[in-house]
């Protein structure tokens, strides 16, 4: 039982580290590394609104608007109050939307 708890705690910590590394890589415009980190985080917890929001950001950066919208919606399906996904979805679905890297919400 204690081994299981320690393993869960380790995975939660690893997940948060990967999320932080992904955000840092995005801010440094190192999108390949960001994608690597978020895919690893996804493998640890694919039910996290953070993961889907960051996958949406990466899709948006790659000009894949439809995939970005799908991930922002998935994020909100997991947590309807997750503000970064709310803001990203509102922004990307607004008439006259134009991508601006300074308008990505983590």
Write the layout of secondary structure elements.
Layout: H1 2-27, H2 31-44, H3 49-61, H4 65-78, H5 83-92
- Uncertain runs are none
**Percent helix range:** over 70%
Query: Quaternary status of these chains?
Result: single chain
Main beta sheet? none
End-to-end separation: 35 Å
Which percent band covers the strand fraction? under 5%
Order of helix and strand elements from N to C terminus: HHHHH
Please, what is the average pLDDT?
93
What overall form do the CA principal axes indicate?
A: globular
Number of helices: 5
Q: Can you give a write-up of this model?
A:
73% of the residues lie in helices and 0% in strands. With 106 residues, the chain is mostly helical. The longest helix has 26 residues, at 2-27. The mean pLDDT is 93.
Outline of the structure:
With 106 residues, this protein is an all-alpha fold. 73% of the residues lie in helices and 0% in strands.
Give structural attributes.
single chain, 106 residues, mainly alpha, 73% helix
């Amino acid at each position: 039982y204690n081994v299981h708890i320690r393993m869960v705690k380790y995975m939660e910590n690893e997940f948060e580290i990967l999320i932080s590394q992904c955000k840092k890589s995005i801010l440094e415009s190192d999108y390949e590394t960001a994608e690597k980190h978020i895919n690893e985080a996804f493998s640890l917890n694919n039910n996290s609104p953070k993961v889907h929001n960051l996958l949406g950001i990466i899709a948006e950066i790659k000009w894949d608007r439809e995939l970005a919208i799908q991930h922002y919606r998935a994020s909100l399906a997991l947590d309807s109050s997750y503000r970064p996904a709310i803001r990203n979805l509102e922004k990307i679905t607004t008439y006259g939307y134009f991508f601006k890297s300074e308008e990505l919400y983590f």
